[in-house]
Amino acid sequence: MHPELKTVIELQQVDLRIVELTTQNDSLPAQIREFQKQIDDFLHAHEERKHRLAENQKERRSLEADTKEIRELISRHKDQLYQVKTNEQYRAMLKEIENEETRIRQIEDQILEEMIEAEDLGKFVQEAAARVESEQAQVAAAVRKLENEQREDAEEKQWLLVRRQELEAALSREVASLYERVRKARRGVAVAEAREGLCTACNVLLRPQVYNEVRTNTAVITCDNCNRIIYYVEPPPAEAEPTEDTTRRTTG
């Protein structure tokens, strides 16, 4: 293979890997933030439920105190029934007692709802409390893994940038200029394989003379359509089909 063709193929591989690492590295901080957000959301939800459970208990105590006061009021009103002097006052007192008993039933319904909510909240709080350490450990491990990947990617990218300089320096000014020009025009892909008479990058049929010359890999040749530098890879030899005689020996 032509030395510059071999160099430019490796340069393309290096450039593609640099782009891949750059994209990958750019996405890692967002992934790390997402993991941290997950644990923050988990802890926030846990604290919110604990706070709501405490509020629930406070509300129930307040409702129970209201119930106690109303019961005491009913008791006083019942005692006062014997002290009223007119039927109108008696009926008014009975109505007052009825309203107070209705209020007690409403409060008891509220207390029951609060108790049901407290039971559900208690389960969530208990389960979350048991998971806090494991959730934090899992997120910390995931973040460490991503940070390690970030460091390894940075190291590999640094090595590739050095290698790129070496490869670029090994090219003639004309080939280096051609490579850079096509790479910028073709979204980072300046080199493509020719296969079965086609440029595999643009899928356009090459002229027979060009394709035959490309197959020799003895010169830097470009595709007439997309201007990419093209090269040829000899396909692996096809496996020979077994002959009738070989089949007989195998099965005999």
Sequence-ordered SSE layout with sheet pairings:
Elements (H helix, E strand, L loop, with lengths): L2 H78 L6 H83 L3 H13 L5 E5 L2 E2 L8 H7 L6 E2 L6 E4 L11 H8 L1
Parallel strand pairs: 1-4
Antiparallel strand pairs: 1-2, 3-4
Helix pairs in contact: 1-2
CATH-level-2 architecture of the largest domain: Orthogonal Bundle
> Which stretches are low in confidence, meaning pLDDT under 50 for 5 or more residues running?
none
- The best one-word shape is rod-shaped
Helix content: over 70%
- The DSSP helix count reads 5
* Percent range for β-strand residues: 5-15%
The whole-number mean of residue pLDDT values reads: 90
Write a concise keyword list for the protein shown above.
mainly alpha, Helix Hairpins
